[in-house]
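Tokens in:
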């Protein structure tokens, strides 16, 4: 049970590290009041759980972060009864004590995105709600991810601030310096508006972030060399963690 009393029903929204994740599973097309989600919704068997999966950037990675229909993705999951979303995403690292190839479960975010449909409240004043976004991620879901990491023997950083940038280009070195001054530990492109929409729709939401490169201007190699070198490792660790997570929840 979740602390609100409802039985948990899980979904993964997975990003670019997960191109060939469970391609042979059953899938369904779900249409929503916001249009079509990024991909058909796949059904994964994880032990006794049926876990829904949406490929955030489409099945061929064709949808950049600023064009993802975040509202449709979450509304599709909501219509299937999902109330717990694990958002798997890739990030660059800013915090100097962390390295590419590692995992993290952030506990805060700063939103630098613009022009995205970031709310389900866009004109119907009857339903207008100002969600309390002080804690953008679900503490219980975060804890379960970290417990699963421990049990699976996968190192996973607890906490940190995820700076959400617009993309699709990567940042300049000066922009990453500014994000560091703002207190960011990681930089990625997708946690917003996803986290806020999930909360507006009453779903628990936490990120499992795969650190796949040093933020611009911070590493020895180019960002694309980092991505090439570290994505597979971080992805393999995240799958190990998720197997343990769904075994335990
Ligand atoms: N910046 C923004 N988004 C990202 C990065 C980055 O360095 N790495 C992975 N997603």
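Residues out:
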């Amino acid at each position: 049970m979740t602390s609100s009393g409802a039985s948990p029903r899980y979904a993964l929204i997975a990003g670019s590290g997960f191109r060939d994740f469970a391609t042979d599973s059953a899938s369904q097309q779900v249409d929503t009041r916001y249009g079509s989600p990024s991909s058909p919704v796949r059904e994964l068997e994880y032990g006794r759980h049926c876990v829904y999966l949406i490929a955030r950037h489409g099945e061929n990675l064709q949808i950049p972060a600023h064009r993802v229909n975040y509202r449709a993705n979450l509304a599709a999951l909501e219509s299937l009864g999902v109330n717990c979303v694990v958002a798997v995403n890739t990030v660059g690292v800013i915090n100097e004590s962390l390295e590419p190839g590692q995992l993290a479960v952030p506990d805060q975010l700063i939103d630098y995105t613009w022009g995205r449909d970031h709310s389900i409240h866009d004109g119907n004043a009857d339903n207008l709600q100002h969600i309390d976004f002080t804690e953008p991620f679900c503490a219980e879901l975060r804890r379960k991810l970290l417990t699963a990491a421990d049990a699976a023997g996968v190192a996973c950083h607890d906490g940190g601030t995820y700076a959400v940038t617009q993309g699709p280009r990567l940042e300049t070195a000066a922009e990453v310096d500014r994000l560091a001054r703002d207190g960011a530990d990681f930089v990625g492109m997708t946690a917003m508006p996803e986290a806020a929409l999930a909360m507006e729709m009453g779903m628990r939401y936490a990120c499992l972030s795969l650190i796949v490169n040093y933020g611009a201007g911070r590493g020895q190699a180019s960002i694309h060399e980092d991505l090439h070198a570290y994505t597979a490792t971080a992805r393999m660790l995240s799958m190990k963690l998720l197997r343990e997570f769904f075994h335990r929840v």
